[in-house]
Design brief:
22% of the residues lie in helices and 26% in strands. The chain has 306 residues and is an alpha+beta fold. The strands form four sheets. It has a six-stranded mixed beta sheet with strand order 7-15-11-8-10-9. Strands 3, 6, 12, 13 and 14 form a five-stranded mixed beta sheet that branches. It has a two-stranded antiparallel ribbon with strand order 1-2. The longest helix is centred in the middle third of the chain and has 28 residues. The chain is flat and about 105 Å long. The mean pLDDT is 86.
Length: 306
């Protein structure tokens, strides 16, 4: 009896799939693109104010205005004049929006012969890149404007008996509180490495609760620490690994609506598909128009030496 062997399995080389004629075409399991929500984008969380600059593209804003007069109040006896005082005005700054964008072109052949919405996938990739770049711009602006620092007692990355992230963070909060400018730190920014060292530090584990359905030791998740919400990001500027801040007062993002029949909110990433009949194809492009505004740099402090 003749032996019938199974046909050779399909093989792939680059973008070419080789399939034996006796085998059905393999099912294409397309990788789902991650959306912007799944990216570690934190610029809009750190600079929570929004300023509509439509029609001007520019803003004149104030930085670090004192909330008290310069002179302390004095006891005033009967018929005496009240003591006079002045106050320190805020420094003034100007900023203008920039348009950050990318585009790509798609031939009709690629659209017609594909099993997926290739245009939408390319738009998603463009939007991801634009959003990630603008996020880095926001954090770079924050890193440049914030000059306050609080030194860690010992390195978090090479732990010793003196390593104590909890106290380091508490002292950073105290640095901001001591300014008496109404700031209330509510967020801790950290790189993934510093976050890992933070939650695994012995003096943090010892203080972590053991009760509940979501303990730190079992899940490695800690979203609140020393009264702060922890946010991980890979977009902190070079030399900044941990920062404590008041996200309500630190600053804003100015945005501008340029029109042009783009899809999406003008305070985020916008996109557009453009038909190119002369070339039998499509052009897809995305943009974000805006500028980060750090209005209260005293509302944040960098923790150094971690």
């Amino acid at each position: 009896m003749p032996t019938t062997y199974a046909p050779q399995a399909p093989t792939i080389s680059g973008d070419l799939i080789t399939v034996n004629r006796l085998v059905n075409t393999p099912t294409l399991l397309q990788r789902t693109l991650r959306t912007l929500v799944q990216q570690r984008l934190v610029g809009d969380k750190v600079l929570t104010g929004e300023v509509d600059l439509t029609g001007t593209g520019a803003v004149n804003y104030e930085i670090s205005e004192a909330i008290m007069s310069n002179k302390s109040s004095e006891k005033v006896d009967g018929l005496m004049e009240y003591p006079l005082t002045d106050d320190t005005p805020a420094s003034s700054a100007m900023a203008t929006t920039d348009k950050w964008g990318l585009a790509t072109e798609i031939a009709d052949e690629l659209v017609a012969r594909n099993r997926m919405d290739i245009a939408m996938r390319k738009l998603t990739k463009l939007a991801n890149r634009i959003a990630f770049g603008f996020d880095a711009l926001c954090l770079s602006a924050v890193g440049s404007a914030v000059t306050q620092t609080q030194a860690a007692a010992a390195s978090w990355t090479t732990p010793t008996s003196n390593t104590d992230p909890f106290t380091d963070v508490a002292l950073a909060v105290a640095t901001v509180d001591s300014l008496n400018l109404g700031y209330a730190p509510n967020m801790l920014l950290a790189t993934p490495l510093r976050y890992a060292r933070l939650i695994s530090a012995a003096k943090v584990i010892d203080r972590a609760p053991r009760e509940g359905n979501d303990p730190l030791l079992l899940t490695a998740r800690m979203f609140d620490f020393a009264g702060l919400t922890i946010v991980k990001t890979t977009n902190l500027p070079s030399g900044v690994d941990v920062m404590v801040l008041d996200s309500q007062l630190l600053g804003s993002i100015g945005w501008e609506d340029l029109g042009g029949d783009y899809q999406g909110a003008p305070n985020g990433v916008q996109s557009k598909r453009i038909r190119k009949d002369a070339n039998d194809g499509w052009r897809v492009q995305g943009r974000r128009v805006g500028v980060p505004l750090v209005q209260e740099p005293g509302a944040a402090v960098k923790i150094t030496g971690t």
